[in-house]
């Protein structure tokens, strides 16, 4: 199947913004960490969290933003790479080196930072802050970026990295799947069924496989249909599908997580992508929200340790974290810190690693010739 690249803009700003919003939703979900003693919340008043009425959705369901991450990634990776992998124009070395250069540097820095901060925290509190399995074995798993592959015995170090760990595995599965060329259209539904069945017992792996490849299917559907009916008509179709799916979610008395992950999330991603195809500059002024999504996701937990240590050292009770002013202060630090991390560390390091890798490839090719 020839991908309709001419119908897609160079960048889907709408999905960048959605990814950034999802990252911030995780920060709200983890606000409860400030009320933990060890790995158990103590005297925690969920509805008392700062500005709860305004951010209730994120406070109560922010954990599901990780599944939204997976869905966005599935859509974007199938858009950008599936055909290149199938055509053998993108090598495994290039693909995985580019992923490594994007993900590993900040992971390593935050892993080391959390390890140091947890030592300080444990010295004064007798337990670690929230995540307790901070031993050499789990350090080894984290260094290999496999702390969520089933080898772990609990949460460790900068635990939000678990979703990145699963994504790394998903990239491997996707790459192998796309190498099967046309057969991938049979393999992908099998993977979705596998994720669906694995999810209850192994939710990290199951949710990743299920939502990532549902996102991939959303791209395949959009790519195929949009070439036939055009951008404008497809936008109407995507709007109808998304409206129907989210009406079902919002009007249901109980949340069907499978429907949310497998239908509503892909429908939302597809709609926003369609809007970006119809209006390429849609949400471009807010592109920075997406740029800092990875840094805000990995930096918020070590920043929480710093805030907790600072408050405890001043003798203030943790109830201070129910104050909207503490939320405002935390975000005032996190967002500029994330921007600085992206601009002055992540992006330059990524460029340097990719240049070094590409130069090495050229040298090896010349030597071979």
TrEMBL record:
Keyword list, A-Z: Acyltransferase, Membrane, Transferase, Transmembrane, Transmembrane helix
Domain of life: Bacteria
UniProt key word DNA damage: no
Transmembrane segments: 12-31, 64-82, 103-121, 159-176, 183-199, 205-221, 233-251, 257-282, 294-311, 323-345
Pfam families: Acyl_transf_3 (PF01757)
InterPro entries, per database record: Acyl_transf_3_dom (IPR002656), Acyltransferase_3 (IPR050879)
PANTHER family assigned to the protein according to its UniProt record, in alphabetical order: ACETYLTRANSFERASE, ACYL_TRANSF_3 DOMAIN-CONTAINING PROTEIN
Protein name from the UniProt record: Acyltransferase
Provenance organism: Pseudomonas syringae
Lineage: Bacteria, Pseudomonadati, Pseudomonadota, Gammaproteobacteria, Pseudomonadales
């Amino acid at each position: 199947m020839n991908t309709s690249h001419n119908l897609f803009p160079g960048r889907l700003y709408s999905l960048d913004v959605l990814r950034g919003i999802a990252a911030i939703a995780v920060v709200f979900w983890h606000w409860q960490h400030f009320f933990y003693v060890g790995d158990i919340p103590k005297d925690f008043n969920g509805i008392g969290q700062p500005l709860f009425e305004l951010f209730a959705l994120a406070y109560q369901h922010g954990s599901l933003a990780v599944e939204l991450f997976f869905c966005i990634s599935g859509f974007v990776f199938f858009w950008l790479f599936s055909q290149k992998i199938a055509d053998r124009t993108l090598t495994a070395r290039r693909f995985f080196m580019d992923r490594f250069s994007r993900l590993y540097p900040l992971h390593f820095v935050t892993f080391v930072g959390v390890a140091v901060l947890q030592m300080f925290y444990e010295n004064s509190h007798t337990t670690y802050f929230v995540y307790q399995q901070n031993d050499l074995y789990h350090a080894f798993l984290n260094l290999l970026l496999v702390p969520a592959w089933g080898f772990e015995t609990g949460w460790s170090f900068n635990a939000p990295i678990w979703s990145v760990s699963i994504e790394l595995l998903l990239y491997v599965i996707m790459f192998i799947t796309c190498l099967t060329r046309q057969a991938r259209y049979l393999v992908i539904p099998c993977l979705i069924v596998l994720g669906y069945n694995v999810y209850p017992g192994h939710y990290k792996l199951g949710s990743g496989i299920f939502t990532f490849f549902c996102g991939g299917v959303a791209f395949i559907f959009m790519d195929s249909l949009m070439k036939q009916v055009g951008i404008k008509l497809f936008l109407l179709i995507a709007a109808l599908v998304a409206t129907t799916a989210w009406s079902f979610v919002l009007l249901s008395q109980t949340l069907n997580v499978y429907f949310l992950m497998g239908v509503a999330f892909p429908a939302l991603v597809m709609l926003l992508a369609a809007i970006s195809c119809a209006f390429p500059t849609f949400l471009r002024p807010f592109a920075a929200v997406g740029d800092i999504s990875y840094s805000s996701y990995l930096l918020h937990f070590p920043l929480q340790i710093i805030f907790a240590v600072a408050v405890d050292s001043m003798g203030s009770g943790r109830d201070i974290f129910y104050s909207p002013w503490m939320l405002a202060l935390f975000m005032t630090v996190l967002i500029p810190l994330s921007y600085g991390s992206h601009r002055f560390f992540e992006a330059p390091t990524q460029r340097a690693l990719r240049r070094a890798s590409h130069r090495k490839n050229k040298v090896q090719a010349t030597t071979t010739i």
